[in-house]
Request: fold
Amino acid sequence: MNENEILQQQLADIGRRYLKRTLGELEHLRELVASVRGPAGCGDEAEAASAAVLQQVAQLAHQICGSGAMFGFDKLSEQAREVERLAIAGDAPSRSRLPGAVAELEEQALAAARARNVE
Amino acid sequence: MAEDAPQLRTILYVDDEPDIREVVELSLALLPGVSVHSCESGEQALALLPQLRPDLVLMDVMMPGMDGPTLLGHMRERADSAHIPILFMTAKVLPQEVERFHALGAAAVIPKPFDPMRLGKQVLSIWEELHRE
Reply:
């Protein structure tokens, strides 16, 4: 194999590792989203806690989005960007859409994992 | 490499995402004679600069804690790093955002996602262009 072929093989291996790790991270993401108190404006302390959780959600989604695009998982990356967008927006309608968006993200990740034979 | 460009020897890449650091290291390792180092934060980069003395620093823009523009600002304030060309790698590539990055002092902006198979040539081309000016 030449250098480029070796690099392509290495990239494919990293991509599979990324998918495997992402499936685990999505479980954590689901738990974070479930802990967000909504709607916005339900008391200072609860709101501060929710804002902190939403920031974690946005950061995790951003990482999944960036790496996903790198490895060619475009639909996964787009859906992660949507989760990030909703978490950053943080208003009541966005919060109510988050669980569904994360569920869709999990579907995309599972589909990508199946396509690449990642368990 | 262009005759008038000095040899590119050391590159530092800064990004909080480990997969992307690994991909960048592998991609740039294909450049002949170049050693590639990476770290996960602006704080780590600032600590590494004196020992690595990189010829070029590539960095992500959006990082938790110290972001790319802030790291650039710190590097410009230090005698040991003020001269080092900085390339931003970012998904934020709207024209006004790219203009802002150049105004801050970035030598170039490489859009994310990037093609790992072409990244080395892109970086080399930028390096040569910088030394043609």
Q: What stands out?
A: The interface with chain A takes residues 16-17, 19-20, 22-23, 26-27, 30, 62, 64, 91, 112-114, 116-117 of chain B (CB under 8 Å). The longest strand of chain B covers residues 10-14.
